[in-house]
Amino acid sequence: MPTPLPLGVSVIDAAIDLFGFLYPHISTKHRNQLIEHFTECLKVTKHARKESVLVNIFCAILCAMRCIRKLNTGSGSENSISKRAEDRGCEELKTISHQIVVVRI
Questions:
Q1: What is the pTM of this model?
Q2: Residue ranges covered by each domain of the chain
Q3: Which of 3, 14, 19, 68 could cysteine-pair with 60, CB 3.0–4.6 Å?
């Protein structure tokens, strides 16, 4: 029988799932504010924790995209995440050539 994850990890995983579920239901203004907040978090995070913060943000955005896809909103909001990240110059969220293997996958 596998052992349960530590409480801190479980709470973060639940928060990521909750973010993905709620993101499609908030206004575009607040969506953009969240992306800006993530960008700022990555800028001020110390190098030792930056990778874990980046992976958590990346997972939260992927959960949000998955939920948007499931809802099939068709309002163009699927592109707002990546467009906003590019507009803010958030190089960390451009994962195609990212040096962290987990983020590239």
A1: 0.67
A2: 7-104
A3: 19
